[in-house]
Protein: Aconitate hydratase, mitochondrial
Amino acid sequence: MAARLMTAQAQVCRLGKHVATEGAMVRQFHASCYSASKVALSKFDSDVFLPYEKLNKRLDVVRSRLNRPLTLSEKVLYSHLDDPANQDIVRGTSYLRLRPDRVAMQDATAQMALLQFISSGLKKVAVPSTVHCDHLIEAQIGGPKDLARAKDLNREVYDFLASTCAKYGLGFWKPGSGIIHQIILENYAFPGLLMIGTDSHTPNGGGLGGLCIGVGGADAVDVMADIPWELKCPKVIGVNLTGKISGWTSPKDVILKVADILTVKGGTGAIIEYHGKGVDSISCTGMATICNMGAEIGATTSLFPFNQRMADYLKSTGRGGIAAEAQKYQGKVLSADKNCEYDELIEINLDTLEPHVNGPFTPDLGHPISKLGENSKKNGYPLDIRVGLIGSCTNSSYEDMGRCASIAKDAMSHGLKSKIPFNVTPGSEQIRATIERDGISEVFDKFGGTVLANACGPCIGQWDRKDVKKGDKNTIVTSYNRNFTGRNDANPATHCFVTSPELVTALSIAGRLDFNPLTDELTGSDGKKFKLKAPFGDELPAQGFDPGQDTYTAPPASGDGVKVAVDPKSQRLQLLEPFDKWNGSDLTDLTVLIKVKGKCTTDHISAAGPWLKYRGHLDNISNNMFIGATNYENNEMNNIKNQRTGSWGGVPDVARDYKANGIKWVAVGDENYGEGSSREHAALEPRHLGGRAIIVKSFARIHETNLKKQGLLPLTFANPADYDKIQPTSKISLLNLNSLAPGKPVECEVKNGDKVDKIKLNHTLNDLQIGWFKAGSALNRMKELAQ
Structure:
């Protein structure tokens, strides 16, 4: 124990060197690492090269130490260790210090990440980094008009992001370029990559054999600031695929089935590693779909082994050199060792895998298509479908669009179109241009569809929906990845089901949940019965991809002359003030702001949709804190009792009253608290409004880390039944914090009137993270060490 403590302390001490004097050495290391190969990381990073030779050397060091077969996930992860010779490596236990190859941020989360980077005082990002404008475009009329409207409404934010990127050396993808994950797959992902992204669906890059991990903005700041990035060493869950994908079954059905098996928290703390003979029957973009939605089971990320399908995609997207270089290292770095061991193993036979539809309200409630109608009637789900939506970062590839078009053409040959509004979201400008050139967009138009902007749109709640009133019970089907209550349209009565784009298309023709295209017939305009043919489509365009409009802006050689201005009166952007340091005393008599009942995702803690416009203004966006969470006391949302005044009010309003009166508070939650999006606003807002600790039964990975980064104590009940001991009127004391240490439970007193219960609260803080708590935040600690 003493040895481990010394190692952790040494790592904390070395952190200052990384920030201050060691930055030049690290950059020199990156240069030497990449110069071994003359294949560029991407066409936008011509002076940075593939790191395979260096990764292989690091991996040799780890192999000699562990002396056992390694999974593919371990190979990619451990070959990016900052100190492979001395790093403690125990799956599920150790905290790894890693050197990611790049950082990617979407516009909604990039605002806060870049505001934090600006406040760090650093002059330039240390690794290749990009910002992608995809979240702030609201679906309203159609692609071109919606994009023009978004550019006008969000001009201040876009100008801030563009100028900040230019000043600090980041690539900038303009609004209209597409969804971050599709852009990464088309341009930046490569086999063996380690990338972090400020979006929970960053794992999409696993479809090209990279370990791409969703994080909060503060983690991105660490990597951009040349500080080793810390990750608890994941366990590895293997998924062995046998058989072949065919017919109506699609890659989406693999992850829908895995979600049904593992549930929304079954992948927490683990990487999902797909392998087996069935892998080769799945396209590269299909593998990306599977990895993308792995976020819904809490997985750290997901990964496929490098194969010919990936090589074909790389060549088709102009990266044949990367494919050739990857093939040289396929056995050494880019595939699992024979006889490697997984912490858990799941077997899926693709030959017998039935198409699935999951939902509503949670992505792990699986229904085989043969059971969907029966289950819907039994549970009272509205059978009539109101809207069908395909696309999003999960399912917007050329293959997805082509397969859906084949279904639409089949229906139209019998005189049928979509019975309901049918919305199509292309994943990128390249996909939009290519499907337009190849006639696929025209098919959707004739089918009754509307092609939306190349953006996230309804998937994240950016949808100006007009066909139902809030509170009206209705059903929608989407090819998206997430279907939490109110997520798509802010209507808690909308029953959203997630499935493959092929099934969305078929169900949109029938207009009902109890239609099974594998067995049921439709009636054509001529009165004759017919069955839809199984979908088909080209994996890659025969004429190659059409890049469409150029939407990328490279940073200048020097950003010294670039000015980044934030208007103090702005309602969209706000420079950050440091959070207060811990004063060294125990946290006593804390008020319970809210005791949350049931599921509490980051959508419940910090809603998206119309609130996205405030993502760069911490005080304004804090007005949505916990407004979607259910209050244990009255089963209502955004209605809690102010323990100081006795009056009832909205959660943010009561929190502001507490802050103004110097009252510190805690929030109490249930299982898998903070699942879903990577948005760090769900941690920043409680900290900003006076929160000191979050006490729950269990946390989702990204959110727990985000809380630590902002100086909050993320604590879990040692005995989950102690959740019942805390009442809305309780006073909470966290004691002996001066002796806070890794693995040592926190002593807690729960006062209910004259009665005092003493309970234990666990935590996963290591020495470095305890330093963040004491300093008030990770950013505060970074500044201390730099000084």
